Amino acid sequence: MNKLGIQQRVLQNGAPLDLDKFEWNEEARVFSTIQSGLVLHFNNISGITFKTGSRCTFTTGAYCIFTTGSRCTFTTGPYCTFKTGVDCTFTTGWDCTFTTDSRCTFTTGSRCTFTIDSYCVIVRRDILQVIQPKAGELIQLCPYGIKGYLVNGLLDEIPHIIADGILSKIVSKKGNIFKVINHGSSKQSYLIENNGNYSHGATLKEAREDLIYKISNRDTSKFKDSTLESILKKDEAIEMYMTITGACEEGTKYFVDSNKLKTKYSVKEIIDLTKGQFGNETFKQFFNK
């Protein structure tokens, strides 16, 4: 999307925001403005970073990052991160992270993390639980159907971790490798963290292999010099496709497991291989600028 395309999605007082009142970094997908009172329509569009003033209303897809003023309203997909002022309302999917001021209302899916100020109440409707956090506490709700929540990483005074929607008791930790016991299991398994991404596995090898599908940094700048003839290893191709298109882990893994893939691909071969799949047009346009 170029700046003119972005302008049609950002309204102020019912009209598109003047071009000189905002910045759009197409490569990094960052929208920046000091303006307030905006309505931003990015329905089903993922991977954008927003920096705005107060009283803004957002509708977006997944993997978005918001740094805003007060009294904003968000309707987003999963995997979003928010840093806001007071009096904000959130209706989001799962795996969202909130750092807010006071008097905020959250209606979210599962696997969300909250860092809040005073006068906020969390209502879990799946188990009819009301949570009154103390200022400064890091609250992590247990996955759907599991009663309780983590306070600063502790559940019943025992170290736990919630990663990819799985609640696990921490047995030991060495560097970025955890030995854990997942909720509902009695067996130890492995959990690896890398740049904010997590992967599980019955063995350490399985956990390491799963990391290939964990993309959190959607900075496409490292691919700017790639061409249709560029050759990539299988894992590099997967990372490139997910980063550029915002394709989810589950969908990408299903596609890879359903197709017998080579060890190396050119960018052109990736475009041909993914024809008709989610993100194919976005991926193709990235290399046809």
Main attributes of the structure:
289 residues, alpha/beta, 3 domains, 9-stranded mixed sheet, 7-stranded mixed sheet, 6 helices, 26 strands, 17% helix
Q: Domains counted in the coordinates: how many? A: 3
Number of helices: 6
Q: What is the spatial order of strands in the main beta sheet? A: 3-4-6-8-10-12-14-17-18
By helix and strand content, what is the structural category?
Answer: alpha/beta
- The average pLDDT score comes to 88
Rg over C-alpha atoms, rounded to the nearest angstrom: 21 Å
Number of strands: 26
Question: Secondary-structure map with pairings?
Answer:
Layout: H1 3-7, E1 10-12, E2 15-16, E3 23-25, E4 30-32, E5 38-41, E6 49-51, E7 57-59, E8 65-67, E9 73-75, E10 81-83, E11 89-91, E12 97-99, E13 105-107, E14 113-115, E15 122-124, E16 129-131, E17 138-141, E18 149-151, E19 154-155, E20 158-163, E21 166-174, E22 177-182, E23 188-194, E24 197-201, H2 204-210, E25 231-233, H3 234-245, H4 249-258, E26 264-266, H5 267-273, H6 280-286
Parallel strand pairs: 4-6, 5-7, 6-8, 7-9, 8-10, 9-11, 10-12, 11-13, 12-14
Antiparallel strand pairs: 1-2, 1-5, 3-4, 14-17, 15-16, 17-18, 19-20, 20-21, 21-22, 22-23, 23-24, 25-26
Task: Describe what you observe in this structure.
The protein is α/β, with parallel strands linked by helices and 289 residues long. The chain folds into 3 domains: 3-149; 159-213; 220-286, no CATH class. It is 17% helix and 33% strand. It has 6 helices and 26 strands. The chain has helices at residues 3-7, 204-210, 234-245, 249-258, 267-273, 280-286, and strands spanning 10-12, 15-16, 23-25, 30-32, 38-41, 49-51, 57-59, 65-67, 73-75, 81-83, 89-91, 97-99, 105-107, 113-115, 122-124, 129-131, 138-141, 149-151, 154-155, 158-163, 166-174, 177-182, 188-194, 197-201, 231-233, 264-266. It has a 9-stranded mixed beta sheet with strand order 3-4-6-8-10-12-14-17-18, with no helix packed on it. It has a 7-stranded mixed beta sheet with strand order 2-1-5-7-9-11-13, with no helix packed on it. Strands 19-20-21-22-23-24 form a 6-stranded antiparallel beta sheet, with helices on one face. β22 and β23 (188-194) form a beta hairpin. It is flat, with a radius of gyration of 21 Å. The protein starts with a helix and ends with a helix.
